[in-house]
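Example 9 (inverse folding). The structure is encoded as follows.
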């Protein structure tokens, strides 16, 4: 029985238009929950299956899965090229075991011992057996085992169905058949056009231009929007969306009163106040940090390698949003801030810090080849930049022409040349886990004493003496080893080897530490970032993306499908081209930059983007639900000086944003996904808002931003031979969650449990899951228990509050509204039952009993759906 159905979820007609490919029929697999009788399969389907094996069908379907293809291109193909192709490709001098792994068909076919890859079946995939080292007779690569993270990627790939777009001709392909001119006709690659705003009578539903576009689409679908949200619900939504914190009870009451007099004026006043709040940058800066894959450690198998200066980029992003820095300038600074003009040293430092965007990604620090390390580093930079700023999966063209979008492989290497001509400074010291150490960039400002204390002349001298003695000791040991070899004696004492390693480590630590001080002992301000290399050169075209198969060089440049004649002019041999790249990306002529950012802002405020695939505006992404509105907002964004605050203000002042989330069965039957916005989407609080709100309501939130990061201190501990301990830091920190240390693979529990973005990749939209661990965290974690107790004490300490007022105030704090009569009745029953139970215990303390009752009541509010969700 075939557990498949011939359902296709891609627009092949559009794909053919873009790529010039004739795609007639493709079968995609769908596992069925029940077994269907054979008679349910249409005759053409049965005929098709008689021509294909299950494995072949699985593989064919996976080719067209854009998520799977991207995973293969970013995680699997580079590892195959680096570790397998030397012995298992068409270019191998002698193919080992009859196994080829450089095409899809060869991988499925396998070698002398059987199939290397069986899609969906880890047990039968000999590739997994080999790289896992579970069989002594089958271990690949034979001289070393792959990193655990790489093995896990291969496992995930097999479980995904082994998506693999490689074709036999991939190995020899250098020329491209992509029709760039035809590709420019795709909607995302055409410049936004100003469309006429739909017109309606003055007394009709729309209030703003946004409403007119939305209402026009609703009317076309014969739908009407639901009622407006009540003032309390709207205020809570505004507070969380703009600053990520709940309103205080007094603010709720004042807003409700103001709305009764003039609601539009009341809403506008609150919006302006929130946009001017310093908490705005902390909220919206965090959104960008998701996209920028912000973290303070390397990740992968060298996770303990910290980035002690990453926090500067974090603060740069927060400050940029608070200052409403024009988005085009914001983009340019992150690509080429070091090459931009600046009026003073403070501004110059800020621009340099901005280039940390290119430096904070995870790196393969254990790579044996410097050439491979640089190629992977550049690929990670191109991948992140493409998704973050252009909504385009450029890195899918590293090993071959992009399978879906009009991006030839040569375009990838034209951009790679720009980044290969740049030096990435990420500030890690050499160690067993780090073969590719890097320095930092010195900023033209002085370090604050909050981060490092100045060294006295005596302290400086002591460290320099220690360094001198360590170097002398190493020379002595090396001399002894040399004389031993010359005399033909046996190998050196293992004790000497250990001492040599220890001294090398000590020297590295001391040298790194001393570089953070000037001769007078004052701290030097350092930052992660990029700078142009001394040698500027074009990148070589790598067949299949393999560093060992370099062909002709490709002139540095940009994506042809987005570039006009001006942008395609040759770049100077004197500079990398990053500034020119930045100016091209942030140009109003670029059809994607404004659209992508507008869509991100809309998604954060409305629950879904106009283009729901927020990181992918290509052929495998989703089409915009309101293309005219998207272009209207993009052009308005540009014309208003690329102001993010202005864009947010326009959206939240629309009637569309201010709708209630009430359910309407008739509308749901027509538009179940609410793509037309007939109501507001209910949204769960993100991890940071949840934690920050609990701290704010308990009275324990410290809104003063901390200077630096605990990772800086932990990094110094490691350099001094100590150990790093960040696990307990979260419980001690009263600051907003954006300032918590973010170590890859070790994210604080209060964030990771509630779907914090994976800091190892660019994430435009977080997943939202509902799992038991979330409820258990709210019920049992020390953090929630302590904050519930603090909230209870805060209510008790409040002057002139009786029991009923305490309950009402608690509701205002947690839900942003007063309790209903039914809620008040149930609350009173709970207190009565709790206190009666306590009376049966010996040695009672009435005050303590009431505090316990109130704290458990507060905890129940924190754990409720009304708190966790925005209506």
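The amino acid assigned to each position is listed next.
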């Amino acid at each position: 029985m075939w557990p498949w159905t011939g359902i296709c979820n891609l627009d092949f007609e559009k794909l053919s238009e873009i790529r010039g490919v004739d795609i007639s029929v493709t079968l995609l697999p769908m596992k069925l929950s029940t077994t269907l009788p054979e008679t349910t399969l249409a005759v053409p389907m049965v005929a098709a299956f008689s021509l294909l094996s299950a494995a072949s069908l699985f593989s064919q379907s996976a080719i067209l899965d854009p998520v799977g293809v991207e995973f293969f291109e970013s995680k699997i193909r580079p590892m195959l090229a680096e570790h397998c192709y030397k012995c298992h490709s068409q270019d191998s001098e002698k193919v080992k075991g009859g196994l080829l792994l450089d095409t899809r068909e060869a991988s499925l076919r396998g070698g002398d011992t059987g199939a290397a890859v069986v899609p969906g079946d880890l047990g039968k995939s000999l590739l997994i057996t080999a790289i896992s080292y579970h069989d002594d007779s089958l271990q690949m690569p034979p001289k070393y085992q792959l990193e655990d993270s790489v093995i896990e990627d291969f496992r995930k790939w097999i479980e995904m169905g082994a998506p693999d777009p490689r074709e036999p001709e991939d190995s020899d392909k250098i020329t491209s058949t992509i029709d760039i001119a035809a590709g420019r006709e795709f909607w995302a690659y055409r410049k936004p056009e100003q469309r006429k705003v739909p017109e309606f009578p003055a007394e009709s539903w729309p209030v703003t231009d946004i409403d007119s576009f939305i209402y026009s689409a609703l009317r076309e679908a014969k739908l009407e929007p639901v009622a407006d949200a009540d003032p309390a619900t709207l205020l809570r939504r505004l507070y969380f969306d703009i600053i990520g914190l709940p309103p205080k009870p007094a603010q709720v009451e004042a807003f409700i009163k103001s709305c009764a007099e003039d609601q539009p004026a009341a809403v506008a006043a609150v919006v302006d106040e929130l946009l001017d709040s310093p908490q705005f940058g902390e909220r919206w800066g965090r959104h960008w940090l998701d996209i920028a894959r912000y973290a303070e450690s390397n990740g992968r198998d060298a996770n303990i390698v910290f980035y002690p200066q990453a926090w500067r980029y974090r603060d740069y992003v927060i400050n940029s949003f608070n200052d409403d820095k024009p988005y085009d300038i914001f983009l340019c600074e992150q690509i080429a801030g070091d090459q931009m003009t600046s009026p003073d040293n403070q501004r110059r430092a800020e621009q340099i810090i901005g280039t940390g965007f290119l430096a904070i990604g995870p790196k393969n620090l254990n790579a044996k080849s410097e050439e491979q390390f640089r190629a992977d580093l550049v690929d990670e930079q191109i991948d992140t930049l493409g998704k973050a700023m252009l909504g385009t999966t450029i890195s899918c063209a590293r090993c071959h022409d992009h399978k879906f979008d009009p991006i030839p492989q040569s375009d990838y290497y034209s951009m790679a040349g720009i980044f290969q001509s740049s030096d990435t400074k990420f500030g890690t010291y050499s160690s067993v886990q780090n073969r590719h150490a890097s320095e930092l960039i010195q900023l033209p400002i002085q370090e604050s004493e909050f981060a490092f204390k100045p060294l006295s002349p005596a302290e400086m001298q002591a460290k320099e003496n220690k360094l001198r003695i360590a170097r002398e000791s190493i020379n002595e040991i090396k001399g002894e080893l040399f004389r031993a070899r010359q005399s033909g004696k046996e190998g050196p004492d293992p004790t000497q080897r250990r001492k040599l390693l220890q001294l090398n480590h000590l020297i590295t630590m001391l040298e790194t530490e001393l570089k953070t001080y000037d001769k007078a002992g004052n701290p030097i301000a350092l930052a992660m970032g990029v700078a142009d290399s001394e040698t500027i050169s074009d990148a070589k075209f790598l067949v299949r993306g393999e560093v060992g198969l370099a062909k002709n060089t490709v002139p540095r440049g940009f994506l042809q499908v987005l570039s006009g004649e001006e942008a395609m002019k040759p770049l100077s041999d004197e500079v990398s081209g990053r500034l020119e790249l930045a100016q091209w990306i942030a140009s109003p002529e670029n059809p994607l930059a404004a659209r992508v950012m507008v869509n991100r802002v809309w998604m954060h405020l409305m629950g879904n983007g106009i283009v729901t695939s927020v990181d992918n505006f290509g052929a495998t992404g989703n089409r915009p639900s309101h293309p005219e509105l998207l272009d209207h907002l993009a052009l308005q964004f540009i014309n208003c000086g690329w102001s993010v605050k202005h864009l947010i203000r326009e959206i939240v002042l629309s009637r569309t944003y201010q709708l209630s989330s009430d359910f309407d069965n008739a509308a749901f039957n027509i538009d179940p996904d609410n793509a037309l916005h007939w109501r507001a989407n209910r949204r769960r609080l993100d991890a940071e808002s949840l934690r920050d709100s609990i701290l704010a309501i308990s009275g324990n939130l410290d809104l003063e931003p901390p200077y630096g990061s605990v990772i800086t201190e932990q990094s110094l501990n490691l350099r001094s031979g100590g150990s790093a301990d960040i696990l307990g830091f979260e419980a001690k920190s009263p600051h907003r969650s954006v300032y918590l240390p973010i170590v890859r693979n070790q994210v604080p529990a209060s964030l990771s449990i509630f779907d914090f973005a994976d800091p190892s990749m660019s994430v435009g939209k977080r997943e939202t899951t509902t799992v038991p661990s979330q409820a258990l965290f709210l019920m049992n974690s020390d953090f929630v228990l302590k904050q519930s107790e603090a909230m209870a004490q805060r209510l008790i300490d409040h002057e002139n509050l009786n029991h009923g007022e305490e309950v009402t105030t608690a509701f205002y704090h947690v839900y942003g509204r007063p309790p209903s009569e039914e809620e008040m009745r149930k609350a009173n029953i709970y207190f009565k039952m709790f206190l009666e139970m306590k009376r049966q215990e010996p040695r009672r303390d009435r005050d303590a009993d009431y505090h316990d009752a109130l704290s458990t009541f507060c905890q129940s509010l924190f754990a409720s759906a009304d708190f966790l969700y925005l209506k």
